[in-house]
Predict the structure.
Amino acid sequence: MLKRYLPILTWLPHYNRRLGVADLVAGLIVTIMVIPQSLAYAVLAGLPAVVGLYASLLPVVAYALLGTSRTLAVGPVAIVALMVAIVALMTGAALSGVAAPGTPEYLQAALVLSLLSGVLLLLMGLLRMGFVANFLSHPVIAGFLTASGVLIAASQIGHLLGVELTSRELLPRLAELIRGLPELHLPTLGIGVGALSFLLFLRQYGRPTLRRVGCSRPLADLLTRAGPVFAVVVTTLVTWQFELAEAGVAVIGQIPQGLPPLTLPGVDLSLWQALLVPALLISVVGFVESVSMGQMLAARRRERISPNQELVGLGGANVVAAFSAGMPVSGGLTRTVINHDAGAQTPLAGLVAAVGIGAVTLFLTPLLHYLPIATLAATITVSILTLIDIPMIRQTWRYSRSDFSAMAVTILLTLVDGVETGIISGVLLSIALFLYRTSRPHSALVGRIPATEHFRNVERHETETVSHVALLRIDESLYFANARYLEDTVYDLVATRPELEHVVLICSAVNLIDASALESLDAINARLKDSRVILHLAEVKGPVMDRLKRSDFLDDMTGRVFLSTFAAWRELSRPSQ
Amino acid sequence: MLKRYLPILTWLPHYNRRLGVADLVAGLIVTIMVIPQSLAYAVLAGLPAVVGLYASLLPVVAYALLGTSRTLAVGPVAIVALMVAIVALMTGAALSGVAAPGTPEYLQAALVLSLLSGVLLLLMGLLRMGFVANFLSHPVIAGFLTASGVLIAASQIGHLLGVELTSRELLPRLAELIRGLPELHLPTLGIGVGALSFLLFLRQYGRPTLRRVGCSRPLADLLTRAGPVFAVVVTTLVTWQFELAEAGVAVIGQIPQGLPPLTLPGVDLSLWQALLVPALLISVVGFVESVSMGQMLAARRRERISPNQELVGLGGANVVAAFSAGMPVSGGLTRTVINHDAGAQTPLAGLVAAVGIGAVTLFLTPLLHYLPIATLAATITVSILTLIDIPMIRQTWRYSRSDFSAMAVTILLTLVDGVETGIISGVLLSIALFLYRTSRPHSALVGRIPATEHFRNVERHETETVSHVALLRIDESLYFANARYLEDTVYDLVATRPELEHVVLICSAVNLIDASALESLDAINARLKDSRVILHLAEVKGPVMDRLKRSDFLDDMTGRVFLSTFAAWRELSRPSQ
């Protein structure tokens, strides 16, 4: 019982030296690798860069104690950072008119978002509501990520080119960018585009090139992933050496040295109300992404993660972030892959990384003073390229217009009206489309495939049929949305075939008959009785049958319930006397 | 084409004398029978009694031209009247602070409600959105009708007993009633309780008693149904004769003589906005009730009605009502049954009744001056008894706790917070419960029933199985809400049975595989491949297979697609070498 809520107890007793060495090495690698990313995503969220480091510290400890994934690494992630930026700006503007990043209201909004997300995740975890995440369908997530990638790129392009942009909307921002092009700042442009080109080159050709010059595969992987670290070191040195900051290149500047201060998210009720829905979306999106990654990695190692306990782990991490000057966190793809590939065995690797980042914030922040913002923008831009998934969009179009339309609406509305509208509309549209599809169920008249006990659609296969028996296979659960449709189908059948004596409803695909559908079956039975047609059922599943037995329907039904379609056929297909 | 939109063209060319006589007789009977009802429901809606007559005039003509049901009779109905009363009071209070029935704002609200309902119905009809009504599940409708019955009874009890009640909420109203009991008005009480007892007696014992004294069955039916007319005539005469109006019995009083005036619903935008959702509910509820009745009656005569064209017919009737001093109308149960049983053959019977009621409003309204409100209250109270369906509530409880909970929530919220909250919550809860059920689908390992080609759940039947093949029947369409659940089910299966070599997913109950589920099948296939387990499908339906062929899944799948479970069994159950 205790183990379920504190998963650390499942692995700590079996901990040994071999695992310890592996975790130590992985933790140190992660420490170095995630610094650029942590700083970058804090900047993306409109927060001071150091917040990204704070958010990679205590929240990681909380997740190590509560989470069930052995290798998931939590911290600031791009999508969540983007959502924080949009939400903090919008609610800041709505609540106090103060919308600029860096104001105390803005920082408060980020803390309150962390706290609310954390509490919501904990609640969902304790109520075992992990299934809610399932309602974010794959096309909606893919559409949302693609649109977010575009929004993130748009938010970074000013930093990359050295043009100051003030609009937040996508189109005005692009217009401003074009107007501002003549005044672009060449040193910033050099650093930004240089870092971007370097990272893009490394991403595309890094591994094969390094392998060709003799690196082992793990070393080539590691060096490729270290690209952002390398870019940070080089551009920081260049900026410092050539005094580019004085020439107008934006740099991170003074970072307070020391461990994160204790912060108290304000208890402004109107702020909480305004942030409740955004916090819910942030938590669900972060959760879905984390759990997908966690499940994939666990599957590789033949382990299992518990989605409901993951809610608790992520919830704990976010609550801790709210009290330690952080920002909303989630399982990050890049940091998780680095952690996993570096050989992490248990969450202790995360603890090592937390200690490492703690040491950095204690002692090494002065070294980051001259780190150009443009380098961070390049890091962000490259890392979000994975979000924009054009092949997935094309596949979805090919596979299902209905899924595609949910995806398209999510993309469009995310771009035009923000992440909140985008996701919510996508989810609601997915549900509406599913309900619409199930409300007009497919049904098929089936016939016997000669010399077998198998029955298939008469329109698709060569089958045997007899004119006084209709075998109607209903391809959907029967519930309120399609109950009337079923009536129409049967009545049409009876109206067009006057020679009918038996109608057999084949229920192999009927997984549920609700009270409305039961009412309709009653009506069908009565109506067929008037027309001297006998109603039978076949292949009713156990759970459905159990339920029917609790009603009067089976007593009133004119015909029988056959175990199989074949049994119904054998009995009814002989000509009646 | 024209016939589709003007159904009158389908029957008018074949009209003949025999039909004409039948329609004339039915129309005259309906004229007399529906007068008390029309007056009563207008009073229930808080409108002048004559509005009920106006609403039974031109709207009937509109429906006769546009509707597809031969015998449905439209006019004021109890549920719609109740909804109008609640909505007009609430929005009146919200918009202008003037909430009393009889004020010009109140009358305006009723007209605007008619117009909006009419326009919404027409729109839904032209967009062929009749299916929307299916989302009002049977338990939600039954719950809503039951709660409305209670609310209507509560609204009439003051009139019946001669106690003046001012509160609108259920509980304060009852408290007020109890406090007011000492001051009840005896003559009103006498008329109200007298009429009520007479009508209840007639309803219960009328038919058998009349048969016993020698009436034919149709005559007994007709006289029983004429109860309200009889009560109206007798109590009006008594009130007039004994000058009870002067003694304090509330009567209808002066009714303007003449045809309905032309009215123009105001174009106050805030009023329209406030009434949009209530109008939508009124139209959908009215539509569902009308269509159910229409279908039932059409079925008896081997005819069909077109739900989408019914939307147009009801929409036209409501638009006309808005411009002819009426109130929202719908197909009424009582008037329809009277019309049908009186032998109406075509909508011309409705036209005859409209002319008849026109004659009444032109010449006979002075006769209604002394009609006591208490008599109308008794008529309403008896007619709503059919709404309260306790056996249905009990059956639903027995059949499905999930359907019952939707019903209970609808009843409770309708009683406590009004019809709007009641219906909307009921619908949303029904949908949520359906989604929740489908998100955790039933699945069963099946085995062969010896010596047959039939496969059933191993836990419910004696079956043959082999240890290296798992036949897993999935009892639900695969879509985003349950895609992850499917993965969990298969992974658990593989984890617990190390000897497995083949997993066959039996898709006989899978009516849809959406893009999210396809993604999950891909993941399952890859994961099983890692574990050296081969994934097969069996009994994939035609439409599902067509769609799968448009993706890459079938190429990547390690195993095969079998036509039947038996084919998979025959092929795979032999021990592998």
User: Anything to note?
Assistant: Chain A touches chain B through 75 residues (CB under 8 Å). Chain A has 25 helices and eight strands. The CA atoms of residues 86 and 418 of chain A lie 8 Å apart.
